[in-house]
Amino acid sequence: MNSLSGCCKKDFPTLKVKVYGKRLVYLDSAATSLKPESVIESIVDFYSNHNANIHRGVYLLSQEATELYEKTRTKLKKFFNTPKEGEIIYTSGTTAAVNLVASSWGRTSLGEGDVIVLSGMEHHSNMVPWQIVAREKGAKLIYIPVTDSGELDLEEYKLIFKNHSVKIVAVNHISNVLGTLNPVEEIVRQAHRYGALVLIDGAQSAPHIPVDISRIDPDFYTVSGHKMLGPTGTGFLYGRKEILKSMPPYQSGGDMIEEVSLKNATWNELPYKFEAGTQNIAGFVGLGAAVDYLISAGMDRVRKHGEELSMKAREMLSSVKGIKFYGPEKGSPGGVLSFNIEGAHPHDIGTILDSEGIAVRTGHHCAQPLMKRLGVAATVRASFYIYNDEQDIESLYSGIHKVAEVLKLGVK
Amino acid sequence: MELSELYREVILTHATHPHHYGEIENPDKKAHGSNPLCGDSFDIEIKMDGDKIAEISFVGAGCSISKASASMMTEMARGKTVKEFYDLLDKMEKLVRGELAEKDTEELGDLAALAGVSAFPIRVKCAILPWKTLKNAVEDDG
Ligand SMILES: Cc1ncc(COP(=O)(O)O)c(C=O)c1O
Per CATH, the architecture of B3-138 is what? Predict the structure, then answer.
């Protein structure tokens, strides 16, 4: 195991929590990550020492708050290597970012018969907003099929362009159920060849792998800050400047305007045009601390750690009778391991693991169409992040044996 | 939190060998119930004789709690009038919420095993789903 292993458990106060008197084994980071002390402290520091509203006050405290809030944007720009200033729009997460695009861009750019390409492994939040705008504008949805090995069928993807007027492609970078890393560069290149835009849902990739937005070259990229050690209610939308400029505001009110008369208003410059009202200021200050933490951990190491742990867990659990895995065989760059055990419903597995202090997610993971494709109603998902280690995998392994014992698997 | 209270022998037996599992011919009423969040999904069919539930069957997939609950329900509901079923439903809901008096619990036979669910609030809806579905079936008017 590499040098990340177990290095930083002490940085995460939640790991000191006892669950039914047992050590917490947190394996649900794909839903939301734990937060390091430094992130928590930055929020306390903000509220204690710099609390003020931003962009409006001429007084010192407001200037400080504005500076802290904007510093995170600069950090994000560098961390994700986005091309230009004004392209990072703060949102509450990926859901809000996709809704912004589907609503603001979609309502003004889509028409009757236009095609929106999604994939069969999307999270509902990169599906439902598109369904709504498609219905409204008479646009059509076409899904890239998922192969038996849990990958996107790129041949089928390419064929879509031959017969349809594709306006936008919206796919995830890493699947939250399978942990598959999708070939986003290739997906972008193909779409651009036909003049279509691309939105990449980076909710699961941003926390786990180095993401170079300039290199991937999408038109939109969405991130959930709370999955990458940041506070809940933080995230952002990256958008190509020329496109953002042409898009109308999504929400309106304070801060997003330039000038307001009784009848009319003009919009503030980017990114503020899309940041109406008082923002989650403390949250974005915390997100800055999260980025600092990830920089010092090193994203290459973070990726390797997630891959190694998910592969190790898969190897260890593969001896369990009746277990079936969904997702990449060689370990997931997203640190995700989805599985089912014959004769044990995921919900029962979740309850029994919980009694051992092990937190996993069970259910459809907000991806019902993918569940259908896999031919299951639900799966168990263990997801690993930088504070997990081999001991956690061993706990999971013992927990699964407890499941077999409680449910009397193999003796019926 | 005692797991053995939740996964009692009788529950596991009903879950793995459910009673009245299947379909009935020419059912008078039926209903579908699901809990998409955990993937539980049941179809219940009944045949009425006056206001009595004469025959009942179910098919579906779910966790052991929901499946055992469905199986035990078919045993309990068969032969009951609609009013008696509503009465039973009321007791069942109290049982899984830990609100049923001891003497009423004893009357419930196997079903009393579901009392353990009350210590697991998140699982209450699993136990209740088949019952809600049967209620919908009873109220199904074609
Ligand atoms: C792939 C993917 N997309 C989108 C989302 C939604 O993110 P959020 O809840 O932060 O809006 C998630 C998180 O659950 C996800 O895993």
Answer: Alpha-Beta Complex (3.90)
ipTM above 0.95, yes or no: no
Q: Does A8 qualify as catalytic in the annotation?
A: no
Specify which residues A97 forms β-bridges with: none
User: What's the pLDDT at A1?
Assistant: 43
pLDDT-derived band at A254, boundaries 50, 70, 90: confident
pLDDT band at B29 (very low <50, low <70, confident <90, very high): very high
Distance CA B116, CA B1 (A): 10
As annotated, the residues of chain A forming the CATH 3.40.640.10 domain(s) are: 39-295
Does residue A355 belong to the interface with chain B, where contact is any CB pair within 8 Å? yes
Instruction: For A9-31+298-406, give the CATH class.
Output: alpha beta
Cα–Cα distance, B18 to A407 (Å, whole number): 15
Reported as a single tens digit per residue, the pLDDT across A43-85 is 999 999 999 999 877 899 999 999 999 999 999 999 999 999 9
Kindly list the residues from chain B whose CB atom is less than 8 angstroms away from the CB atom of residue A18. none
Host H or E run for residue A234: none
CATH number of A39-295: 3.40.640.10
Q: Is residue A128 a contact partner of residue A102, using CB atoms and an 8 Å limit?
A: no
Start-end ranges of CATH 3.90.1150.10 in chain A? 9-31+298-406
- pLDDT tens digits for A162-178? 999 999 999 999 999 99
Per DSSP, which regions of A342-389 are E strands?
358-359, 361-363, 379-383
Helices vs. strands in chain A: H and E counts, helices first: 14, 17
Residues recorded for chain A: 412
Q: Which residues of B have a CB under 8 Å from any CB of A?
A: 1, 3-4, 6-7, 12, 16, 36-41, 61-65, 120, 122-123, 126
pLDDT computed for residue A410 by the predictor: 72
Break chain B into its structural domains and give their ranges. Answer: 3-138
